[in-house]
């Protein structure tokens, strides 16, 4: 089965769409040569590392940012370089789907039956990942993209990971 994984999305989860509340700082970044503003809370790194340490889980990126997350996000929130799900850019409407289905397909394949928690803001990803063949035990923690990741999300994930009994 393998150790559980905590999968992290960036836009809408660590980078809320609405101007964030206290604790966030704006950063300019240029992944793939396109410059834009990224709102990040440096406290998220500490909280996520603690979640992984206390539950025996591994942290990994599940975002279109892929390895760019290690360059632009990790150093700004205090995370080490993390493995990532290789999710190619969504090509638009495809056979079988939506953005959620597209991401879910890649996440399920990458996780290879390992249990996982996924912090994600795509509204249809819960149903999509459950429909993927061979997906392991998982908990999708829906995050409001206007607000981003909160302590309640972390607590929900921690409770589920502890219930695995690993």
Automatic annotation (TrEMBL):
It comes from Actinomadura viridis. This is Secreted protein. It holds the Pfam family HAD_SAK_2. The lineage of its organism: Bacteria, Bacillati, Actinomycetota, Actinomycetes, Streptosporangiales.
